[in-house]
Design a protein that fits this description.
There is one protein chain. Helices cover 31% and strands 25% of the residues. The chain has a domain of 55 residues. The chain is α/β, with parallel strands linked by helices and 255 residues long. The protein is built from nine helices and ten strands. The strands form two sheets. Strands 6-7-8-3-9-10 form a six-stranded mixed beta sheet, sandwiched between helices.
Length: 255
């Protein structure tokens, strides 16, 4: 088993004349909680889409859970959970029907965990999915993405539509309930102060390039600042500032 949950090796992705990712090489160690940061349009969502094989690289490669992300099969995909900023759920179903339907696709679906999350997040299981507010839809998306105990959980702006109380509950789960599982979590978010509480590693993108990839404590010690101050410093520079990897989870073949 690889020490890394996933690796991008020299990945470049272009959409016409636009370069979304430029020669990105990163490796995310298993059981880490990573904050994926960057301004709008920096390439965060495109990077996450490469991890699941939803987007294929123009050049380079991505290895996810030991397999080429371009050819992920049902077995690998069943070990991944994804929450997108605007998930498209089956709007005509009621929440309990949706959860029952999704559970049939996973041998590992945990009904006790589902009940715990529904209670903790105060989800109305009798509500019509299509009538949910954006925040409540996001809560349901979190339940769908986590109750099969994925090895890799990718969260793309999971806090954006949540009120402060719900954000606190979600962050508490990430720090407590899921931290004890054998799981790797990547959180893409603009809410830097919130996610700084739960992450242990930072990947910072600017204009499709990696400008920081390091353990959180090492990054803060090197700069003598908090994460939000570091973010503003690095994305505000005109030239790339690439921090040395901290050593854990180096891509194969890298010195």
């Amino acid at each position: 088993m690889s020490a890394n949950a996933f690796e991008l090796r020299g990945v470049t992705k272009t959409f016409g004349a636009t370069t979304a990712l430029a020669d990105v090489s990163i490796a995310v160690p298993r059981r880490s909680i990573v904050g994926l940061l960057g301004r709008n349009g920096s390439g965060k969502t495109t990077l996450l889409h490469h991890v699941t094989g939803l987007v294929l690289p123009t050049s380079g490669s991505c290895i996810t859970l030991g397999a080429d992300a371009c050819t992920l099969g049902a077995e690998e995909l069943s070990r991944i959970g994804v929450v997108n900023q605007r998930d498209t759920l089956l709007g005509w179903m009621r929440v309990h029907q949706l959860l029952s339907y999704v559970s049939t696709f996973y041998r590992t679906w945990d009904q006790a965990l589902q009940a715990e999350l529904v209670r903790t997040l105060d989800i109305d299981v009798d509500a019509r999915v299509g009538a949910l507010s954006p925040g409540n839809a996001q809560k349901v998306g979190l339940v769908v993405a986590t109750c099969h105990h994925p090895e890799l959980l990718l969260l793309d702006e999971p806090l954006s539509d949540l009120d402060p109380f719900a954000r606190r509950e979600v962050l508490g789960m990430l720090l407590g309930r899921f931290r004890s599982d054998d799981i790797t979590i990547v959180i893409s978010s603009h809410m830097i102060q919130d996610i700084e509480r739960v992450i242990d590693r930072v990947i910072l993108l600017e204009q499709g390039r990696v400008v920081a990839d390091a353990e959180l404590d090492a990054l803060k010690e090197a700069h003598g600042k908090n994460l939000e101050q570091i973010f503003l410093e690095l994305v505000g520079r005109e030239k790339d500032v690439t921090l040395a990897h901290s050593g854990a989870g180096e891509p194969a073949g890298r010195a």
